[in-house]
Amino acid sequence: MTMGNGKSLSTYTAAPLTFGAEPNMVDLSNSDSVQLGLHGVHHSARPTWKLKETVEFYHEILGLPIVHCITARGWGRDGHPDFLHFFFDSGCGSVIAFFYYLGTERPDDIRPANEVLFRATHIAWAVESKDELLHWKETLENRGIDVSPVSHHEIIHSIYFTDPNGYPLEVSYQTRDINELDRIDAEDTLRATIQLESDRSDAGRKIGNIDEVWNRKAALRSVEDDESSIEIFVLDVPEFKPLVDSAYEKSECEVSKSEDGYYRIHSKSKLVFERKKLGLKPAVWYGLFTGGLKGRIESYGREEVHLSPV
Prior knowledge:
The protein is 27% helix and 28% strand. It is of the alpha+beta class. Strands 1-11-12-10-14 form a 5-stranded mixed β-sheet. The two termini are 30 Å apart.
């Protein structure tokens, strides 16, 4: 295949991704011939100690219908407080639920904190278009809610805000369908990370940074043993295509493609990529080498990344 810049696109045969038996992992879903299935999320549930504020926020500000409420004298267990368990319709058959435990105080260990480990536990609701996402943002802000700028995460665009309990909430739309290559790469990433984590644990260490994961993925996919070169493996998906296009324009790069849907960028020289020239948002930029990287990252800033052979 000849590209627009006159370079030809060669093909390569990917190394087989054989991981062996992963420590502490037993694939019972395949071994017992029983397949389990889900049909979406029914509900998420959290406790609240702000009943009035929670009802006002979800029902009057967000406009979610109240659809059910359980009241109970404990649940037959010693020390279990009496409670209300109430539900709001969040669309497509799903509901968001809260427990209001009577006569209790919020424990210190579940108070909200403005730091990443707390905010990682959150709910994300789906809308169907960017226009709908922007409509949510504008409407919430007009109703007095502090809403984040729109964030771009590979295939998801999102806004963030918090409820009266301090719980993080997200509204997002997905820019493309998830495909088979996404599934394969996700499984490869998780298996490689589990393998790497086991290796580090045996040595009394933890994985230090994402570079180690990218290096392990590349080592499993690499087609050559030459350590004096750079290999970048790039999924054939729209969000990473600018990296491939940029590599085509670099005389020091050779670009090929495997049958399993990955581009391979190969270079024996140092490489520099610039975010603005690639036209990437920061959230995609900082995941640029998710397909795998053999080489050393000399620096990785907001605007440039510098790579060198190992």
